[in-house]
Amino acid sequence: MSQPPNRRPENPKISRELFVLTYGALVAQLCKDYKNDEDVNKCLDTMGYNIGIRLVEDFLAHSAVKKCRSYSETVDVIAQVAFKMYLNVTPTVTCSNRGGNEFSLILDKNPLVDFVEELPAGRSSLCYCNLLCGAIRGALEMVHLAAEVIFLQDILQGDDVTEIGIMFLKKTEAKKHKKK
């Protein structure tokens, strides 16, 4: 059976430009609503976290990835599959400690800042893309991995690249239900 010509596809993708412009408008509104950069950063992180806890279901349903056996495998999946799937970029992964629980995702090009040349005046500590950190943290928590996720470098702060640091804290235990 064929689809009627006017029917929209079931999983339409919005254009990247529309998404980036909408995100910019969101950050601009938060800057108007909150005087202090830390409050804006916290709000973006919380929004990202809420997105991440919901996005993980979609990711697992559409990516066909197997269960990761290590932190390094997990970060590789985030970089090579999740970032590619949702932002159409593939960050470089580096491990930054011998314990194997601290990693960096390095983006040469950050799609969220395509139309942003600089941070607003007086907003030097604004972490414009903090939504990404929250989304990663929320998604990891949903697969029982507690992590601290922060920006280490940011193109909008004058750095050459965007670098997101991920430090795995500990594996959280799934609640086990007793049989009655």
TrEMBL record:
GO terms for cellular component: endoplasmic reticulum; Golgi apparatus; TRAPP complex. Its main location: endoplasmic reticulum. It is found in: Endoplasmic reticulum; Golgi apparatus, cis-Golgi network. Signal peptide: none annotated. Keywords: Endoplasmic reticulum, ER-Golgi transport, Golgi apparatus, Transport. InterPro entries: Bet3, NO_sig/Golgi_transp_ligand-bd, TRAPP_component. Gene3D superfamilies: Trafficking protein particle complex subunit 3. GO terms for biological process: Golgi vesicle transport. Belongs to the TRAPP small subunits family. BET3 subfamily. May play a role in vesicular transport from endoplasmic reticulum to Golgi. Homodimer. This is Trafficking protein particle complex subunit. The gene is TRAPPC3L.
